[in-house]
Amino acid sequence: MTEPNVQLxxxxxxxxxxxxxxxxxxxxxxxxxxxxxxxxxxxxxxxKASDNTRDEFPxxxxxxxxxGGFQTQTQDMTLAFAKGVGGSTNVxxxxxxxxxxxxxxxxxxxxxxxxxLNPRMDKYIEENGAHFESEENINKNNKLxxxxxEKLGWHVDQFxxxxxxxxxxxxxxxxxxxxxxxxTAIVQIPAAEKNGVQVLPNCRIEKILExxxxxxxxxxxxxxxxxxxxxxxxxxxxxxxxxxxAGTINTPAILMRSFGKEFNPxxxxxxxxxxxxxxxxxxxxxVNGTQGPPKNYYSDQFSETERFLLESCxxxxxxxxxxLVGFGPEVDEFISRYPHLQMxxxxxxxxxxxxxxxxxxxxxxxxVHYDLDSNIQRAFIKSIxxxxxxxxxxxxxxxxxxxxxxxxxxxxxxxDLDKLISDKQFKLGQVTIASAxxxxxxxxxxxxxxxxxxxxxKVHGHNNxxxxxxxxxxxxxEVNPYLTIMALADRVSEGLKRxxxxxxxxx
Amino acid sequence: MDNQTSQNNIAPSKVFLYGNMRFRFEALQHTLVPxxxxxxxxxxxxxxxxxNTLLSQQTTSSRIxxxxxxxxxxxLSVCCHARLFRKLPANKQTRVLQFxxxxxxxxxxxxxxxxxxxxxxxxxxQKELHExxxxxLRVDPDTAEAKQ
Lengths: 507, 148
Known about the structure:
The complex is a heterodimer.
Chain A: E1 6-15, H1 19-28, E2 38-41, H2 56-63, E3 70-71, E4 78-79, E5 95-96, H3 101-107, H4 114-127, E6 130-131, H5 140-152, E7 157-158, E8 160-162, H6 188-195, E9 198-200, E10 203-212, E11 215-222, E12 233-244, H7 247-259, E13 276-282, E14 297-299, E15 308-312, H8 317-321, H9 329-335, E16 341-348, E17 357-360, E18 366-369, H10 374-393, E19 398-400, E20 408-410, H11 417-420, E21 434-435, E22 465-467, H12 482-506
Parallel strand pairs in A: 1-2, 1-12, 2-9, 4-21, 12-22
Antiparallel strand pairs in A: 3-4, 5-8, 6-8, 7-14, 10-11, 11-12, 13-16, 13-19, 14-15, 15-16, 17-18, 19-20
Helix pairs in contact in A: 1-6, 1-12, 4-12, 5-10
Chain B: H1 19-32, H2 41-56, H3 60-81, H4 90-101, H5 106-124, H6 130-133, H7 141-147
């Protein structure tokens, strides 16, 4: 690698601008008034709402890392995570859940509890405009989900979504052309910039060159100068404090590129991701899932007992088509019934295992090893049966069921779902499994033997290095994770400010 | 191609579907996604552009694996039915693909999944065909107002 051509110096550098980095930038930006210099570095570009065409393929290419097609090493699961100022908050559906008590209890970390996290989560619920959509704005696809659950006597509830002036365009997973969705690119980052934080898009962190008690030196590559103050090329960036917020895949990768794969016994390990399956069914009348906000309801009826969560959902033609098991005319015909299709999402609440991990290849690129073990497969089969029951209860006349003997199950077969959908028919590699909730890899804890950071996100053995993103989760959040990530980033920022005060008092 | 990256932007060494490979793939696509049999020349080109664009972003090793898998399908076709896949009657083509789709070997199932995904990208990735399946996006009221 050639020598860096320029040196930059800041007091604080934040790497990554999603739910974690964007939040940390805003929370720390008040320090700019006191003379601190802060930079927010982002791997991807800065997007303009006016550039959003809502076309599926080009927008997926634009917003997502690897165009949304990043696969695990065993090639049986696709991971969706984004790049660009705002990170994955540009492409989530804005589903806002507070971390459940059961999940935080499992984390079992001193100081991390709902007493600490709830006020932080409440702050962002307010700041990011999370609210319950009014009944008249909820479309039929979502209403059918609710009806199905109610008919079966299952617990069903509405979740809040964080939008303002939403026109119900439904293409949330392809970014928002109206900036209605209140991600960090819309709320936290502009506030941080107003206070003096400098944002550097198109900036890839190659590695940490030095981490000492006096500060951190990063080696960065600016890949495009278009929207930057700086030319393309290699830069050495020095900072007193650095926060890594590059997410579950890239934060461990940066640490491994910098300090080696063995610098911490659990680096990259214990990742969880809520592996998910999309189900679809056909109704006689039009469902029109594209008209209105795509997601409003969930059922946690089986969260505790069977370890899966059901949510209403809507996907675009190709994303949807690639989820259908099988091939040939019947699949084509089913897709052509698009306006009549109800869709649901089943997310498995996976356990954190040491062998599920991020590593890097010889070039330093991240690789994900994830075993869809028998427990996950069992949960999938039960979730497919449950989704099928839900959709038939809502009036579906036929449905597409992965893990069933035939590609499709018809209403008259509804009584036989347990027989038709079985472990014998559920084959990895045949069923499309995807994940958009990436968690863990740099878990918090107390000892360096069992965790990467302490409960304030400070990396063990590195006085000036912090982590603030989903990689901190010791196990899955059991719900959509962005609000929890923001709450943790708020906590990390609080700790960093306290450390800065202590550092200055020592001088 | 308006909003979609054109094949012209892909380095020649990374264009996967051309020449013989293109015809072999199209025969597979016809069985996997029968809608593609009705494609006009423009639709065929759009399909190729989408797939080639996606494949150009994958590693060389992924493209080699795909080429090997397509060759494997031809080998099986020859072994079982004494003809290359594209020269088989439709029912036998379905039977060959069914073997990979439902194989006891996970590797074959994964290869099939990748191929099927690409075939679908070429069809359902074309926004011009969305009308045909009834995929209608709600118009942004602000954009509509601005146009008026």
